Amino acid sequence: MVLAACSAPAEIAAKSGAEASGKVAADAPAPPAPPAAPASGPMVTFTDNAEQGEAKRTFGYSWPAAVAAIPDLAARLTAERDAMLAEQKSDWQSALAEFGDSDCISCVNRDFEKSWDVVANLPRFLSLSASWYDYSGGAHGNYAFDALVWDREANRAIDPKAMFRSPAALQDAVGKAWCRKLGAERQKKLGEDYSDDGFFGCPPVADLTVLVGSSDKQRFNRIGLLAAPYVAGSYAEGSYEVTLPVTPKVLAAVKPEYKAAFALGK
C-alpha cells in the first residue's frame, strides 16, 4: 500500500466529534474542495459505479501519465486502488443489508475519489501528491492528502518525510515558519473569528502531508505542507497549504543519501 501521509476518516471524525452513524439526513452540505493540483498531462482514470434503487456507490481513482510510464509504480497504485474498491463494495453491501428497507438514503450512499498528480519530475525522483474524498454515510464526507516520492534508481517508493534525518530534525527545520504562515492563513480566512488559543493549535509537521517540490526540475528546493480538515482547523475552514523554500536548516535535516537531490530555494 502507498505510504499514507494523512489522517484516516475515522481518526478525523474522532478528533472532531462528527457524527458517523449514517443516520443523518441525506441533504448534507457538500465538502469544501481540496487545493487544486497542478495539471500534469493526460490522466489515467478508473471508475466503478453502481446503483440499487436510490442507493448509489461511486468510485474513482486516477494518476498522471508520468506514473503510467513506471510499471512498478503503476502496479503499486493499482494494488491500492483495488484494495480500496473491494473495501467500499463490502461496506456498501453491508449498508444495503442493514438500511436497504429504510428511508435513510445517506445510509446507503457511498462515494470515494482519489487523484494523484505530479509535484516534481526530476531525473532520479518523481514526487507525487494525492487528494482523496470519502463519503461513507453521515452528515458529510472527509477529504485528506497523500504523498510519495518514487526513486527511479532504487525502484521504490519513499515517504517524503523519510528523506529527512528524523521527525524532530524536520520539525526544527520548518516548524516555526509553518506555524507563522499557518497563523496568517487562518487569520485571513477567519477574520474576527480567528483565535490562536482555541481547540486547534499549530499541529506538528509530523501530522501534516509533506511534499517535496522543485522550481528548476533538477533538485528539490521547495517544501509543501498540507493540513487536511480537523488537523489545523475545523471542517468548515477546509484545508491549509503552505509552501516554504529549502533553507540551510532544511538541507541540514536531509539524510546524507538524499542531500544531492536538494538545493537552496528562494
Note down, in words, how this protein is organized.
The chain has helices at residues 9-16, 65-68, 71-99, 167-190, 248-253; strands at 43-47, 50-52, 55-64, 110-121, 125-135, 142-151, 156-158, 209-213, 222-227, 240-245. The chain folds into 2 domains: 9-159, Fervidobacterium nodosum Rt17-B1 like (Heat Shock Protein 90), CATH 3.30.565; 162-261, Actin, Chain A, domain 4. With 266 residues, the chain is α+β, with helices and mostly antiparallel strands. Helices cover 27% and strands 27% of the residues. The strands form 2 sheets. Strands 1, 2, 3, 4, 5, 6 and 7 form a 7-stranded mixed beta sheet that branches. Strands 8-9-10 form a 3-stranded antiparallel beta sheet, with helices on one face.
